[in-house]
Amino acid sequence: MTVTYFSKCSSVGPSSRYRVFQFLPQFQEEGIECRVEPLFGDTYFSILEVRSRALRICLTIPYVCARFLKRLGTLLMLRRQDVLLTEGLLFPYAPPLMERLLRRLGHRVVVEMDDAIYLTHGQETKIPALLRSASGVIVGNERLAAYARQYSAQVRVVPTVVDTERFAPLEARMVDSGSHADDAITIVWMGLAYNLKYLHVLVPAVRALQAQYPVKLRVVCSHAPKLTGVDVEFRPWDFQREVTDLQDATIGVMPLEDTEWARGKCGLKLLQYLACGLPAVASPVGINNDIIVNGENGLLATTEDEWYEQLHALCRQPHLRARLGQAGRRTVESRYSLALWGPRLADVYRDFAGGELYQTTPRPVQPPMSRQPHSTVRR
């Protein structure tokens, strides 16, 4: 079976890395030849780091034009494939004309979404048209699926998953490490720079905790945060070091605002924390409610007071940290692991390859799926 995947970015981009690149060895074992064609390469991320806005724009425009031309050339030379997958639009900012043309030429085009990209400016009409023209849609959670089902009858939910052999606890964390309440505590947040805004809800809680315990807030990102009055340990994100930056931390945090955009997120950083055996505190927004069962495999917090209470409980109770960390690791192994979902995603690809070229009428709009028996119940 042959598949060409038109990703948005190279493996440096977290979405592309976790939605396709990490699956390539599994695809090979499953007999699927998957070729990935990134739109933007590593240079794109270097341009985004340029501080001068004027210079950044001057560098971005020719780079994007060159990459669009390269993708167009790839499409024009494209041979028959069993399935073509595209991460969002083939050409962002442009109408889905090429996707329609590919379908008319007899290609099975499957669209993948792991964010609520239909909420971004200028995409309100483009994304529905894209989904209508596709042979099928793969999404990262039920919130995105509910949207996609308005326009497509062939929607599959494949959650974002992590490699539990790579993201694994330190050996000492697998058993009770014997840590004490007065040991140094590192609260860690890992993410993209445009999500740093979510950290502000933590500021009062972390300030108060740092007055009582030897606590520091580690931020792993491309940019350092500006959090007044908080002792921050900034570590630039690096692929080779991202696992160890989590493994030697104490608690993972994933604050979110309760917005439609945040409800479309797929919980990657939360899964990374849990896979490394870290007890985690997260906002009860979107898929976080499906991953975390409050008090069983993690903790949930909404208000500043709740963030303080949950983090304070973990700071003063090493055994609670150990219990939640072990339970969180089991959650990822049993529901969100690469080993589990590699063969499943391969089957999804095969189903699309053998399905109808033109999808049938979409089903009626459905609300997001209700929580499964193991889903979170706020306590």
What does this structure look like?
This protein folds into two domains: 2-161 and 338-354, Glycogen Phosphorylase B (Rossmann fold, 3-Layer(aba) Sandwich); 171-335, Glycogen Phosphorylase B (Rossmann fold, 3-Layer(aba) Sandwich), CATH 3.40.50.2000. Helix 5 links the parallel strand 3 (83-87) and strand 4 (109-113). By secondary structure, the chain is α/β, with parallel strands linked by helices. Strands 2-1-3-4-5-6 form a six-stranded parallel β-sheet, with helices on both faces. Strands 9-8-7-10-11-12 form a six-stranded parallel β-sheet, sandwiched between helices. It has helices at residues 14-19, 24-29, 42-48, 53-76, 97-104, 126-133, 142-148, 171-174, 203-210, 242-247, 260-263, 268-275, 288-291, 304-316, 318-335, 338-354; strands spanning 2-6, 33-36, 83-87, 109-113, 136-139, 155-157, 185-190, 215-221, 232-236, 251-254, 280-282, 299-300.
